[in-house]
Structure formats: structure tokens, C-alpha cells
Amino acid sequence: MSSAPASGSVRARYLVYFHGVAAVRGTQRAVGVQNYLEEAAERLNSVEPVRFTISSRTDAGVHALSNAAHLDVQRRSGRPPFPPEVLAEALNTHLRHPAIRVLRAFRVPSDFHARHAATSRTYLYRLATGCHRRDELPVFERNLCWTLPADCLDMVAMQEAAQHLLGTHDFSAFQSAGSPVPSPVRTLRRVSVSPGQASPLVTPEESRKLRFWNLEFESQSFLYRQVRRMTAVLVAVGLGALAPAQVKTILESQDPLGKHQTRVAPAHGLFLKSVLYGNLGAASCTLQGPQFGSHG
After folding, report:
1. Which is deepest, 68, 171, 261, 278, by most CB within 10 Å?
2. Cα–Cα–Cα angle for 140, 284, 144, nearest 5°?
3. Is the pLDDT confidence value at 260 over 50?
4. Would residue 72 show up in a list of annotated catalytic residues for this protein?
């Protein structure tokens, strides 16, 4: 937190929702969404530099259909706080990356914290089967799903396996080894496996041999790479390499280095779908891209 506001100035805290790619490769280094947002916020002429506290940090290559962050803006003496809609428009005007956009902004209390106050996070993982060569994937699906050469997945077996992950458990087996965390216990509220669909920009001719699948995971919070590791194990079940009951054994082992759970699903198939904040009202601006909707 910065020092107390200068005499006559008002510091206002906002919650903003945005979408974009977690990290964009620049000429010299990976530049995160936070860098672009803070660069745009420099044009707000805040008395103190604006810093974004991101609700959910994701790996490079992971997409956000709807992520959130809080920020403080302290206007100069005599100037009232920005209305939320004006703040969102100003940030979008000055954002220099076309794949990042602020969706909506809210005024929140000065002690609100975007990461700690979140009551629910939902991740979507997209799979495509029937893609025996990478160049068979339609151009509008490139880097938006994990391609598998198998013609199909055993969805019933995957759904059975997913039930073993529901509830409150020590998820050590599904976190990256050596990740610092106070407790590996998490509560997985919902996990689903269902048929998905291709982008509406993909022609029937391009997609006739492909099948798309959606995996969704909901929890208040996740361990580092937990979703991508759970996805890899469920895919192994869908391909017949693991039996559904083995997922329970893996979970109970609490061993992140076991031979079945060391594989991590590629980052580019993962989407942060929504972040919720209880009764704050921000739930109304969570998004689901229509091309990624599940059936049933």
C-alpha cells in the first residue's frame, strides 16, 4: 500500500475484469498482461503509480476469458474519482495490445483484495481428438486446444475418474514439485467432462474428422499447475492408459513425482473462464466464449 493520500486528493479502489493471454512474447522477453495494464494506467495521471493486483496468475500461454484485478487510482486534489465505466474506457483506449481488453470495472472498498476475496474460480480445458498431424488443426483453433491423435476419448471413464477428485483433499500429487504453498488442501467443487465444439470460424469441411471436448474445474483456489496435471491424468483415462480407480490411488499418494502424474497438459489449451466474488455483483460480467460452450 502506498502512503496516505495527499491533502484534498481521493484514492479510489476498483475491481476490473479483463480478458487476454497470460503472457505475450516480446522481442526480448515475455511481457505479461499486468505490464500492459499498468502501462495503460500511466495515462490516468494518478498521484501514485497504479499497480494491478491480479486475482489469478496463470502460466505463459494460458488464456483468460475473464480474469480480475484490483487497482488504486488517486486523482489530483479537487478531482473526483473516475466513474467505473470511464475508467474501463480509458484503460482500453491506452492498451497497446489488441488481445487484451478491460471488460468492466466496479468501485470496491479500500480493503478489497482481488486475489483473497475471490469465492470461486473456474477453468476450462479444451481438447481435440482425431488430429493425427498438427497441420490438420484448423487455423482458427491453433494454440486454443490440446490436440490428440486418438479418434475419440472414453468420456464415461473420464467422468467416473473425475468423481474421485471432487471434494476436499490434499492435492499434493497434482501440484508441481517444490511449489511453495502453505497448504496443499483444496476443495474441488465441480469437475465436468463433456463434448465441446469448434470455433464458429472453422468450416464443417475442416472439422469433420475432429471432435472437441471440454473439461471444467471449479474451486475457490488451485495449486500451481493443478488443473493442467489433473487434465493430463483424466486424458490418460480417456485414452485407456489408466483405469478410473487409479485416479483415486494417485490422489491418495500425495506424490507429485509419481510416474502417472508428472505429465502436464499444454498451457495453450487452458482458459480461466470466470472469477466470482460472492455478493459483490461482479459475477454478471464473467464470460464464456460462445465457441467454447459445452453441450448439456
Report:
1. 68
2. 15
3. yes
4. no
Q: Which tens digits make up the pLDDT trace of 69-79? A: 999 999 988 89
Of 56 and 161, more confident = 161
d(CA 220, CA 116): 10
Q: What separation, in Å, do the N-terminal and C-terminal C-alpha atoms of the chain show?
A: 45
Q: Could you tell me the three cell numbers for 24? A: 505475450
- pLDDT (tens digit, 9 = 90+) per residue, 22-81? 544 444 444 578 889 999 999 999 999 999 999 987 777 788 899 999 999 999 888 999
CA atoms of 245 and 249, how far apart (whole Å): 7
Q: Within 13 A of 265's CA, how many CA atoms are on the CB side?
A: 31
pLDDT reported for residue 211: 93
C-alpha 164/C-alpha 23 separation (Å) is 33
Q: Say which of 59, 154, 170, 255 is annotated catalytic.
A: 59
Any idea which residue has 505479461 for its cell? 32
What is the grid cell recorded at 103?
A: 471488460
- At 291, the pLDDT band (50, 70, 90 cuts) reads very low
Write the DSSP assignment of the chain as a string of letters: --PPPPTT--EEEEEEEEEEESEEE-SSSEEEHHHHHHHHHGGG--SS----EESS---TT-EEEEEEEEEEEEPPTTPPPPPHHHHHHHHHHH---TT-EEEEEEEE-TT--TTTS--EEEEEEEEEES-SSGGGS-GGGTTSSEEESSS---HHHHHHHHHTT-EEEE-GGGS-TT---S--EEEEEEEEEEE----TTS-HHHHTT-EEEEEEEEES---TTHHHHHHHHHHHHHTTSS-HHHHHHHHHHT-TTSTTT-----GGGEEEEEEE-GGGSGGGG----GGGPPP-
Instruction: Confirm if 229 and 266 have CB atoms less than 8 A apart.
Output: no
